[in-house]
């Protein structure tokens, strides 16, 4: 599992470049079939835009020409700062439904490459 640096302020083009760099390093010049990327719901990265840039940049690398970028969003998990109840956050409404206090996000914030599939 490799983290793509700090994700919050990164532009889709920058992220696409980082994904390509990691794939080159990890694949060891073998032909890459799929790259599975996990995104956080709070990053507000536009998946279509990211795929668009990835498809352009990958053409510069022969072993990535056929690579497909598969994007999935991770569930976002928050914990109430007061009563410590954990919630799955769907609508980015950060208040505890039980006691109305704030939630802190404890899972699902980081973007990372889950796996890289290489042709045998
Ligand atoms: Zn609470």
Based on the model shown, name its key terms:
single chain, 120 residues, alpha+beta, hypothetical protein PF0899 fold, four-stranded mixed beta sheet, three-stranded antiparallel beta sheet, 2 helices, 22% helix, binds zinc ion
Q: How many individual helices?
A: 2
CATH topology: hypothetical protein PF0899 fold
Helix-strand string:
EHEHEEEEE
Estimate percent helicity. Answer: 10-25%
Strand content: 25-35%
Q: Largest sheet, described in full?
A: 4 strands, mixed
Gross morphology is: elongated
Low-pLDDT runs of 5+ residues are: none
Counting helices, strands and paired strands, the structural category is alpha+beta
Mean pLDDT: 88
Radius of gyration: 17 Å
Small-molecule binders: zinc ion
| Strand numbers in spatial order across the main sheet | 1-7-2-3
Give the total of domains. Answer: 1
Could you explain how this protein is built, in words?
With 120 residues, the protein is of the alpha+beta class. It has a single domain, classed as 2-Layer Sandwich (hypothetical protein PF0899 fold), CATH 3.30.2320.50. The chain is built from two helices and seven strands, in the order E-H-E-H-E-E-E-E-E. Strand 2, helix 2 (47-57) and strand 3 (68-73) form a beta-alpha-beta unit. The model has no long low-confidence stretch (mean pLDDT 88). The structure holds zinc ion. Zinc ion is lined by residues 80, 82-83, 85, 96, 98-99, 101.
């Amino acid at each position: 599992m490799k983290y793509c640096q700090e994700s919050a302020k990164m532009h889709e083009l920058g992220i696409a470049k980082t994904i390509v760099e990691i794939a080159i390093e990890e694949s060891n010049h073998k032909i890459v079939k799929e790259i599975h990327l996990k995104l956080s719901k709070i990053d507000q990265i536009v998946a279509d835009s990211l795929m668009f840039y990835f498809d352009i940049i990958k053409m510069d690398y022969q072993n990535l020409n056929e690579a497909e970028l598969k994007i999935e969003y991770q569930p976002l998990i928050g914990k109430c700062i007061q009563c410590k109840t954990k919630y799955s956050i769907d609508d980015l409404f950060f208040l505890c439904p039980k006691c109305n206090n704030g939630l802190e996000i404890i899972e699902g914030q980081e973007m990372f490459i889950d796996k890289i599939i290489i042709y045998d």
